[in-house]
Amino acid sequence: MKFVRLLWSHRYVSRAIVTVGCWGLLLGWLAGCAETSAIAQQSLAEPGYQLGPEDVVMISVWKDEHLTREVVVRPDGMLSFPLVGDVPAAGHTVEDVRQDLSKRLARYIPNPHVSVAITKLQSYKVYVMGRVNKPGEYLVGHYTDVLQALSLAGGLTPFASENDIKIIRREEGEERVFLFRYGDIQKGRDLKQNILLQRGDVVMVP
Asked: What is the phi/psi pair of residue 156, to 5°?
């Protein structure tokens, strides 16, 4: 009977240790994911970061709960706010938006104290198309160069033309094309072609 009790006790303790260990691993993994996400958000949400469509900002006016709310930058680059209507946001920093809002609100509120903070970065998207393993749209929380974008897409397929890759960028209604020779990069040559991508850039791998 003592042997049976010891065996049962050993099994119970072993299961408990395994359960606690699994929970510890799970919690550690979740904490790691949260930390990685936070770092990614911070890497773009720098003072010089320019807002884009679908980004979300929290705007608050001191001592006025009715003028504290989250707003989304619309596809036309504007955001809407009570009293002042539409305010330009895309292509501007949060400090630009804060100063603009303060000036507009000053017509209705004496010495308004306005704060603007980014809560969600959703505009920095790049596209990797063609002969890569995982083509598609990528929402990234950090500045990304061509090599990093290709890595996100799972790398090139065996039949990709690695020295004919193009980056297509639309600026003010016109398209610009940048050439990227993957083979040269592998050999450590012409590294300056590994440019930082801008939101909306398309990496085309023929």
From this structure: -80, 150
pTM exceeds cut of 0.85 = no
pLDDT digits (tens), the chain, 206 positions: 443 444 434 444 344 433 434 444 434 433 444 443 443 444 455 667 899 999 999 999 998 888 999 999 999 999 999 999 999 999 999 999 999 999 999 999 999 999 999 999 899 999 999 999 999 999 987 789 999 999 999 999 999 999 999 999 998 788 999 999 999 998 989 999 999 999 999 999 99
Query: Is 131 within 8 Å of 205 (Cβ atoms)?
Result: yes
* E strand segments, the chain: 56-61, 64-72, 78-81, 85-88, 114-120, 125-130, 136-139, 165-171, 174-180, 202-205
Residues present in the chain in total: 206
Say if residues 128 and 203 touch (Cβ distance below 8 Å): yes
